[in-house]
Write a structure and sequence with these properties.
Blueprint: H1 10-31, H2 39-57, H3 62-75, H4 77-95, H5 98-109, H6 115-130, H7 133-151, H8 155-172, H9 177-186, H10 190-219, H11 228-238, H12 247-257, H13 262-280, H14 282-288, H15 294-306, H16 316-322, H17 331-349, H18 352-362, H19 367-385, H20 388-405, H21 410-422, H22 432-441, H23 445-448, H24 453-467, H25 477-489
Helix pairs in contact: 1-2, 1-18, 2-17, 3-17, 4-13, 4-15, 5-7, 5-11, 6-7, 6-8, 6-10, 7-8, 7-22, 8-10, 9-20, 9-21, 10-21, 10-24, 12-13, 13-15, 14-15, 17-22, 18-19, 19-20, 19-21, 19-24, 20-21, 21-24
Length: 493
Amino acid sequence: MPETPKTPSYWQALLPLIALMAMLASSVWLFGDDSSYGPNQIALLIAAGIAILIAFANGYRWKTIEKGIVRGISVALGAILIILTVGALIGTWLLAGIVPTLIYFGLELLSPQWFYAASCLICAIVALSIGSSWTTAATIGVALIGVAAGMDMSPAITAGAVLSGAYFGDKMSPLSDTTNLAPAVSGTELFAHIRYMTLVAVPALVIAVLLYTVIGLRTGEGGDASSLLAMQSQLQDLFTINLFMLFPLLVLFVMAMAKMPALPSIFVGALLGAVWALIFQPERVAAMASSEGWQANLEVAWLALSSGTEVASEDEGLSSLLSGGGMESMLNTVWLVICAMTFGAVMEYTGLLGKLLRGIVRMVKSTASLVATTILTAFGTNVLTADQYMAIVLPGRMFRAEFRNRGLDPRVLSRSLEGGGTITSPLVPWNTCGVFMFGVLGVSPLAYAPFAFFLLLVPVIGILYAAFDFRILRLDEADMDDEDDLLADRQTI
């Protein structure tokens, strides 16, 4: 007999989500910042187990559920490989003196009063150039967190500024994968989507920079600028510092701008960092080697890729700052991603997530409520599935027909998907973006979220535009004929 499972009820669809929210809140209350190192993973798996029991009650078989879990996890495999490779890149770039060089010149160029605003703008320019918020955070962002430590500035505010700039550049760049995905799912054109996105993104960035400027001017005087020279001196004692150390960073930017895939680009950058360490930091490599000779030096470079770098100095804070990285450092992140994707896959493939979304669509009445609901649903999908791609694709599929039926331009949908899906993803601690940013910046999403002004402002501005019907584009009959052709071309999405 073929499997004919029943359609879940709304209460059945809500139960795993309610259980997850309760367990995650308890996890944070009991374990604080350590909640992402095991407790959150257990909460996600228990919630997935509750969803599986509901699926059994509705007639699903284990083999079907297992296939859905495997498919769901496979969606995140690309992100998992990138996460591991970024760990390797951080390890070799610390050993090669690349990150220390960025910190050294950052200390020289940045003043405490303008540090947060400058961090935001620097990351915006870099992300716009390469189209990757992840790469920006893992390179420039890591260095800026180091500079913040040297100035005794807030790591939480710095992380918020880094992510604000990185995600602005990501959304404005045609090289970004999510910036390409949103218009593809919605049925519009890439550059038309980017132009329409600027109406929300640019005001959000301007407000964010102004807020960082105000915070810097009010608190920057407390930054310990007198310690900067001492820190620079220690960096020079530990590493060879010069502009040529930044060549691997330049290579990575060139590969990104040439539209090379992220995974091989980052891995090449990591390998080049290992080579740079052997050539330009022989004393640092020798200090970490267990014996003498080129074999021992090669072992150190190899271990930097897998286990990271350890730097010993008289300043414990500096030692902690310059140590870390390696694929091994990302294993907890991978653990969290797998658990989160397991929960999201069970919710999707057993019909529980679809039931929630269909119920939401029926409640939408006005254009403003449709836009607001799309943004909030994309954010909710981020929470449920822990993946920014699913937060774009699933609501995009659910709402595309509704937007068209109401005569709304698909750019309104694509901008709403970006505002609720991509941009809010690093605010969710168990989302792939949230755990990645926590892994590379060392700051919990719960700590930086109040200061990630751009990420908070974009969805709010998008909802306000809809509420006041400001620049909400509509289709005429000719446009709707063109839309039919576009939708036919996008059926493979």
